[in-house]
């Protein structure tokens, strides 16, 4: 495989494209090993620059012929592209190239998956298809003709002429090449229609391979229609083509892709039936379908000027899909899930891979599809909204689309829209985009009683952001801290307020009838780590009383994390947390989904991170033992209430994947999990009686986590051997619940099974993502976890550099641990870096992690 030269690209070097494109016409003559691509591209000089250099990106296509204005041309073709001396006026460029989709195991460009042709062009896959200015600020309307005997031939936009062996498509909306898509294969549609608010009928279809997958599209279609209606109601944004197609593909590097009018999905985030997908997967499908659909405006109609601006489309679109999920499910529960996702971002921010939401340089842009760009990017939009208010946000977004429709823009343009529409954006908000690292906000209080009764309460907040790679010093950023002040009976003493901490420190005073318990950072109002001296009693008080569900959950979480840290240092479990959880489990008032989230203990990685934050080197074995001991203590404290809780939460109605039923099943599963530690029988029975995959996986996980379940696991594997996505779960559970000293060996043995396929990223993630998720196993003192991971990353890198680079992030916390473990992890990273023919993608990641 040809690799582009590994040179860093810098935001500061941005220059406008010398040539713009008025029109693109493509013909694809499909053949698995020798596809011909004929392009006709109308170029015109860009009036915004004097530069007339003509260079097209190209990574792999073999040039067969090329012409300028009809006359044969002889361009210079190098590894990274094609150059020629252009005429000094608009001209027509024509090329014919040949590519080999079957040999494309990188899953970028045009490739084959189970006999189907499909494409992935974000970020720089189009250049693997043909020569083109493959940058997002070059936008053009595309016309595509596909020639093939395959029955279904799809591309972007609206369908045009079609006949035996060909189909044409026209996309009138100018788009960058990264949004190009083509799919061809033996596919069947699940169809529906959506009528837009202005009365246009849109033909919807989800395409799958013929067979069982055909019956697993209904939920995706329903989610799509809900999302289309929601975007009209919430943002006044309607769909803009006659058709909207979604295709399910088994081999795909990421979740899904928002190609204009032709979304391509990893089959794991689109196909679902009660028997083959869990509640969580249904929820993910709903969110991802919405996310890709919302990109039609935030990303496609208004796109990014360059890849440094990726958060412009991703942060905003994640925020929009979060708002959607909050509306169609439980807002409180969704917010807690988002905060949990942000823990992954905090981990990234605390390690060698920390980077700003808008990075300043990259080697392989695909390495920047990160939690920071996506998740933290969404938090920045949320903070902007909370600062300017709902109306200000609505006005700003209206202006954004009015001003920038059809353009490729920057974060400066985005912030300018907020300034122009509202006039109230804090001066230094832009720092959130340019500074990496998670701010630490410390809170201190003072209480001065008054003789007349009550007193003055002073709250002092200060912020500090730790150094991150390449950024030793940080300036203060505007931080909205949503705050409540609670009385001893749990009532709010004043109306909740958003305190905006703009400088390094700030102070607020309140006249109050009694000394309050502060409830800070309600709703996770800013992506910061709050530091406050609080005792367990106060946390238990907030867990029991805080009216803000996020703050309530967070108090419980803190309580558990602190306890686990103490236990990892040798302390015994005390009874405060088990009793608090028991009280919550038996309190019928809160939503079952919320109670289930509260019952889940922090992960071993969370505890390791907390210890590291305190300046200690976490011992993975001690953390594992502590968490196991606490789980048992909680089980025992709840022993008498667990069967009742499980019985009360058992769903007997026909399966629905909605928030209500999923919440009940989640709490049922949590109870079953604790129960299994004391008695395996209920989980064994639940496994046999399960009527859907959610119950089946909950029961099997409960058994495996309690050291049982070998027979059930074998039964599961046999029954699901023909179902790729369900079998992924089996692969994953084997490793996830293996004893720490066996985890690496289990992963290795699974990867050598015939069902393991290095070309399928889902399967790789199932095994090696689970190895990283087995904290004490991956970080086992023997170093076997590190060695096995390195071995398989290298094998994967030879086929699929992007996927290998992503999975290498499993090493990002290696500096936390003791010198011995660090030496072993460092050696594994060195072995990766020394490998012959290492891809630039994996080299960049392993190098950054090792530094
Ligand atoms: N834009 C997609 C994610 C995506 C990014 C890169 C890909 O290939 C390297 C594929 C998909 C989204 O946000 O859903
Ligand atoms: Zn996206």
Instruction: Give the radius of gyration.
Output: 27 Å
Molecules bound to protein: O-methyl-L-tyrosine, zinc ion
Structural class: alpha+beta
Residues in β-strands, percent: 15-25%
Low-confidence stretches: none
End-to-end separation: 27 Å
Keywords:
Aminopeptidase N, aminopeptidase, globular, Immunoglobulin-like, 851 residues, Neutral Protease, domain 2, alpha+beta, five-stranded mixed β-sheet, binds O-methyl-L-tyrosine, zinc ion binding, 31 strands, Peptidase_M1_pepN_C, 26 helices, binds zinc ion, zinc
What can you see in these coordinates?
- Its EC number is 3.4.11.2.
- One of its GO terms (molecular function) is zinc ion binding.
- Keywords: Aminopeptidase, Hydrolase, Metal-binding, Metalloprotease, Protease, Zinc.
- The structure is a single chain.
- The chain is α+β, with helices and mostly antiparallel strands.
- Among the domains are: 249 residues, Immunoglobulin-like, CATH 2.60.40; 132 residues, Neutral Protease, domain 2 (Orthogonal Bundle), CATH 1.10.390.10; 92 residues, Aminopeptidase N, middle-beta domain (Immunoglobulin-like, Sandwich); 103 residues, no CATH class.
- An 8-stranded mixed sheet has the order 6-5-9-3-2-12-15-14, with no helix packed on it.
- Helix 4 crosses helix 5 and helix 10 packs across helix 13.
- Bound molecules: O-methyl-L-tyrosine and zinc ion.
- The site of zinc ion has 4 residues, from helix 3.
